[in-house]
Design brief:
Length: about 500
């Protein structure tokens, strides 16, 4: 669950060495893990072609090469830079490797080979050279299988961004903990299957070196999921209010309302303008309905203290009405989605002012375009990865930010970050975001804290899509939500 950034992994390596652990011994274990993956996955390869870089990633490559030679595999090594300038463990690994290496420009495709990419790993921060990009392109075009050491060279370990070019690995072997770049796009698409190998750094050291990044799994939120008991009844399970647009725009809010009900809220009420009441009523069964046409009617409704959370945005409409409704709701648990976000595009500070000074209880769910409207300066910052953008936005808004996409990122103002990676491609369908907003709203209504509700909502959304399978529609998703008691 805990992910380590390249800097944090470097700190873990340093702390391990300072504690007396043999750093070269760790490198040998890493290189042997790579060679074992090669032998397991590609036993019929005609040659292991090992690209060794100028740092410790290259050292792992030299160890792997020597181990493969000992196993009877033909091996060719191509080095980047001057190997005489290698230092520390990487230098020792090259000395211990009895295979002559050649400069990487000498590489030529070899029939039946498998490439081991030990050039840069996760720590790369600059674009690859044109010459390396040409080699990568040749390997890719020839469909040569690649095993990446730590991370495919060219992929940023912190951001997942491709820096000029990057190998497309069939398999990636990383060590102790995965990095954010393994799960963020486009890096995730370059990793192939991911193997996290334990080379022996103690967990206490990883915990000391680690920070805020996590893979979004049930371990992150399961303890906060609502649990039913013999004394449960509908009012104790929370009352969710979902706001609808006008007569021709009730569908999105109805999707959210049904999702909130399926997520466990005891009651869900669809708040509709009076002129949309008849349209909405023809589609509602278990979801209740309340005419709420203006802010005065809203404030009267809010006098009912049994209302525990709200969803505003899906199909609501952009404009002043949305802003006044949010002002009335700002002190209550709230999912602000779609039109609710866009309504503050011209005045984001107004929204941030409404949410300031309290314990964070609002979840903002922007997709890329909506994020850019609300946080234009953060969005256009090219050096920030998606987690950094979401984290900065969360601190500015004093809200949990769920930055949607195939690699959804959830960030809290206190620095916690979760990267969601369970969503299948077929989840990209009209209305799925409305369902996500409703799931989160249903969890907030049952008392889940905002960050845990957002993390759980994103994971449940993806899990439901996987259960539903290809060809799903948004209407299918709520019916495929798993039972909370079955989540492990």
């Amino acid at each position: 669950m805990l992910l380590l950034t390249p800097e944090e992994m470097g700190n873990a390596d340093r702390l391990a060495a300072e504690s007396g652990i043999d750093s070269y011994g760790l490198m040998i274990k890493a290189g042997h893990a790579v060679s074992a993956a090669f032998l397991r996955l590609f036993p019929g390869a005609s040659r292991a072609t090992v690209f060794c870089g100028p740092g410790n990633n290259g050292g792992d490559g030299y160890v792997a090469a020597e181990a493969l030679k000992a196993a009877g595999v033909p091996v060719a090594i191509f080095h980047l830079g001057d190997p005489e300038k290698l230092a520390g463990d990487a230098r020792r690994a090259r000395i211990d490797c009895a295979i002559e290496s050649r400069p990487i420009p000498d590489y030529r495709l070899y029939p039946g080979e498998v490439v081991i990419d030990a050039l840069f790993g996760a720590g790369l921060q600059r674009p690859l050279s044109d010459n390396l990009c040409e080699i990568i392109e040749a390997v890719t075009d020839a469909a040569v299988p690649v095993i990446a050491v730590d991370l495919p060279s060219g992929v940023g370990g912190l951001t997942g961004q491709v820096l000029g070019g990057a190998f497309r690995a069939a398999h990636t072997v990383t060590f102790m903990r995965a990095k954010p770049g393994h799960y963020l796009l486009p890096g995730r698409a370059h990793c192939g299957s991911l193997e996290v190998f334990d080379i022996g750094i103690p967990q206490r050291i990883l915990a000391e070196a680690g920070g805020a990044h996590h893979l979004n799994t049930p371990a992150l939120f399961k303890a906060s999921l609502p649990a039913l008991s013999a004394s449960s009844h509908k009012f104790r399970r929370g009352h969710l209010g979902v706001f609808s647009g006008g007569p021709s725009a009730t569908g999105a809010a109805r999707l959210s309302a049904m999702a909130g009900l399926r997520a466990g809220a005891g009651l869900v009420t669809l708040a509709v303008p009076s002129n949309a009441a008849l349209v909405a009523a023809t589609h509602l069964t278990a979801v209740m309905m309340k005419p709420v046409s203006d802010v005065a009617a809203l404030e009267d409704w809010l006098a009912d203290k049994r209302l525990s959370a709200f969803v505003l945005g899906p199909g609501f409409g952009v404009g002043e009405k949305a802003r006044t409704f949010v002002e009335a709701l700002a002190a209550r648990p709230l999912v602000l989605d779609a039109d609710g976000i866009t309504s503050f595009a011209e005045a984001p500070e107004q929204l941030f002012g409404l949410l300031a000074g309290t314990e964070p209880h609002c979840v903002l769910t922007p997709h890329e375009g909506e994020f850019a409207r609300l946080f234009p300066d953060i969005s256009k910052h090219d050096t920030f990865g998606k987690p950094e953008k979401a984290s900065r936005a969360a601190r500015r808004a004093n809200a949990v930010v769920l930055y949607k996409g195939a690699d959804t990122v959830i960030a809290a103002p206190d620095g916690r970050i979760a990267i969601n990676a369970d969503a299948p491609p077929w989840l990209a369908t009209a209305g799925s975001g409305d369902v996500l907003a409703g799931i989160i709203g249903g969890l907030l209504a049952q008392g889940m804290p905002a960050f845990e509700a957002a993390a759980a909502g994103a994971w449940l959304h993806g899990d439901a899509a996987n259960r539903a399978g290809e060809g799903l529609t948004a209407e299918d998703l709520p019916g495929h939500l798993p039972r909370f008691s079955a989540i492990s």
